[in-house]
Amino acid sequence: MSDQLLNKRPRLSFWEIWNMSFGFLGIQFGFALQNANVSRIFETLGANVDDIPILWIAAPLTGLVVQPIIGYFSDRTWTSLGRRRPYFLFGAIAASIALIIMPNSPVLWVAAGMLWIMDASINISMEPFRAFVGDMLPSEQRTKGFAMQSFFIGTGAVVASALPWVLTNWFDVANTAPEGIIPPSVKWSFYLGAIAFLGAVLWTVVKTKEYSPEQLKAFEDAEKEEIEDKNALREVPIEAGDGQKKVVLGILFAIFGVVTTWLTYHYGLDKEVYVATGGLAVVGLVMMVAGLLQKSGKTEQGLVVVMHDFIHMPKTMKQLALVQFFSWFALFAMWIYTTSAVTAHIYGAIDTTSALYNEGADWVGLMFGVYNGVAAIVAFGLAPMAKLLSRKWVHAISLMLGGAGLIMIYFISDPILMIFSMVGVGIAWASILAMPYAILAGSIPSNKMGLYMGIFNFFIVLPQLIAATVLGFVTRTYFGGEAVYALVLGGIVLFIAAATMYFVDDVDAVD
Fold first, then answer.
1. Which residues make beta-bridge pairs with 127?
2. What is the largest CA-CA distance in the chain?
3. DSSP, residue by residue, 80-92
4. Distance between CA atoms of 124 and 67, rounded to whole angstroms?
5. Who has the most CB within 10 Å: 154, 248, 275, 304?
């Protein structure tokens, strides 16, 4: 009997999975251009980016707010374009406009505004793409679907990051400009990025057809029968009048946030700490409001639903949250400190104006390209390896290889050897972008796929916020200002993430 007759999601061909994931190439163009060039744009317009810490965490902070909201609404959307595709398209149009405007910003505040608009727009496109794989693919193909996204993320990062260099060295586009003006190579990179973003998303919108809500419901009902843990996809109902737990938790979060904010002010801690402490207070207030709305019987309010589902996450999602926390803390440590670590520890250069320092910084940029390139290649091997070993063990091994790669930098004296370090990091990066989502998709209800994927983003943002607020203090106080120890710490944390995979229950693992 065919899969369709059994009401199971039909298997898709390689090219169907390629088409439904192709839009991620455009999304990564936007992120990579932003990450590689935002400092240059702000500094050109007269800012010292170190004095504007909020800009460094604009992307994760924006995603923290936007992704659950978009997930909630995309779960409840059905149009002639489908369920997720309207959000792909709207986000791509808005992000492409921001990509064109940003390098033409006349003053700093315009560029800052464009950065936030771009982050929000990219997140509007990106969040439904994660849920899209869960909607469209059966369990045995979800690893392949998320691995395909990893491939496009790695490819997009390599190409987009290299665009200014390519335009200058291959097409003689100027990489300098008068004071206060963005160089033409950067401008044209953003223009090309806008075309790539919109074009790639349009390809997915045109080439992919979504299942109707009725079909998705039938698929989930059939697939529940194959899951041994019958409680895995069970939803906890929202009871009218029963919001006291949310009110109490909200009060505790708010008090803790206010107290830590005052302590931050009293002891003159880094400004970045205010983002974390103030965020706790805001989360507390939002949770209190959600509890009061529920107590008054308004159980269908989006705020109530989001907070309720956050508190009552499925068991597998809670287990994966811990893995994500450690993984992304380590990644953020790498992104922040690799340049400082390599230039000082391997090249022996601390003068940022010296030729040796800039040689080391350029090498770090190349090495980041290496790990993204490795991730793009390794992505195609994740699904076969998961079939052989299981998704859990592939992810655990990949995280250990990434941890070993970061720790290895401490023992390197020849920059060439960093290639081996970045191979390990690239394998971990490919798996981080695929395996947790493949495991998660089978553990959450289809009708809340978007919302839970958005909530899952909390455990990417939270460790980045914590890393941004504590790593500087730890490095100055305990590591003597030597950034290489922050990378060693990141490597150790990746080994901890690998160990926590042992406790993850992959409820729809395919034998």
1. none
2. 70
3. TTBSSHHHHHHHH
4. 7
5. 154
Asked if 32 and 160 count as a contact pair (C-beta separation under 8 A), the reply is yes
What single string gives the DSSP state of each residue in 348-371?
----TTSHHHHHHHHHHHHHHHHH
509 token code pair: 């693992």
> What is the mean pLDDT for each group of 10 consecutive residues in the chain (511 residues)?
59 94 92 76 66 57 84 90 92 94 86 85 90 90 92 90 86 82 88 95 94 86 69 72 87 93 82 77 90 88 88 92 96 87 89 79 85 93 92 96 97 94 96 94 88 91 81 84 92 97 85 53
Instruction: Provide the phi-psi class of 82: left if phi over 0, else alpha when psi is between -120 and 50, else beta.
Output: left
Query: What is the residue whose two structure tokens read 């335009």?
Result: 167
Select from 146, 204, 168, 155 the least CA-distant residue to 32.
Answer: 155
Q: What is the pLDDT of residue 1?
A: 36
CA 412, CA 417: separation in Å to the nearest integer? Answer: 7
Residue 425 to residues 144, 417, 439, 445, 502, Cα–Cα distance (Å): 20, 13, 21, 32, 21
**Residues, the chain:** 511
Q: Which residue has the tokens 């993204």?
A: 372
> Based on C-alpha coordinates, what's the Rg of the chain?
23
Helix residue ranges per DSSP H, 297-353: 302-311, 315-341
Phi-psi region of 387 (alpha: psi -120 to 50; beta: other; left: phi over 0): alpha
> Shortest CA distance to 193 belongs to which of 16, 75, 31, 429?
31
Burial environment of residue 469 by CB neighbours within 10 A (0 to 12, 13 to 18, 19 or more) = buried
Element (H, E) at 393: helix 391-408
Residues with Cβ < 8 Å from 501, sequence gap 6 or more?
Answer: 323, 392, 393, 395, 396, 399
What DSSP state is assigned to residue 414?
Answer: S
The single-letter code of the amino acid at 81 is L
Tokens of 9: 């999601």
**Could you tell me the end-to-end alpha-carbon distance of the chain, in angstroms, rounded to an integer?**
20
- d(CA 196, CA 23) in angstroms, rounded, equals 9
Neighbouring-strand partners of residue 82: 79
Q: What distance in Å separates the CA atoms of residue 440 and residue 317, rounded to the nearest whole number?
A: 6
CA-nearest of 363, 26, 86, 73 to 208 is 86
